[in-house]
Design brief:
Blueprint lengths: L2 H7 L12 E6 L5 H10 L3 E6 L14 E4 L18 H8 L2 E5 L1 H9 L3 E17 L3 E2 L4 E2 L5 E14 L5 E6 L4 E6 L4 E4 L8
GO molecular function: ATP binding; GMP synthase activity
Keywords: ATP-binding, Glutamine amidotransferase, GMP biosynthesis, Ligase, Nucleotide-binding, Purine biosynthesis
Protein name: Glutamine amidotransferase domain-containing protein
Amino acid sequence: MGSTAAAAASALPASAGSGENLVLILDFGSQYTHLITRRVRQLGVLSLCVSGTAPLASLEGLRPRAIVLSGGPHSVHAPGAPSFPEGFLDFAADAGAHVLGVCYGMQLLVQSFGGAVEPGERQEYGKMDVEVTAGSSALYGGEGEVGKRQTVWMSHGDEVVRLPQGFEVVARSVQGAVAAIENREKRFYGLQYHPEVHF
């Protein structure tokens, strides 16, 4: 196991390695990643935060229940933009984990599965209302939520313009940008905003 992940994992109960109540957070450089870790722990759930570009071998032995891909200051189109390690998607599937991409993390998922991300016509920063567009959603609590709004924290210049096969849009910003996506069959989810930021 890589030194950073090994040191962090050594502080976890032995049961965490088998996937008991563990959320793994892959950090892609967001200023809010520490808030994700804090929010998870406030729920009484074990969390382990490691670099998003850590080699897959550094995660060996971990079987998290959920994985969060953090935001970051990068564009998925920029040369050298960070990405999760080769084999990560298979690792998540083998672990049976639910994967949530946040902001940049969602764009990485979309790009990795063959969707398209492009510079947004109207970049979104700060408080923004989003509206649920799907009649049934794992992210927003089941049936009958169409039209429900909430105010969230946006911080992105790029946006999703084409979904990968198997994904659906379940919420949009009031400006029309994709705000949330799901592929419930494969257990992959994405939020363009930062749910960890409270205001």
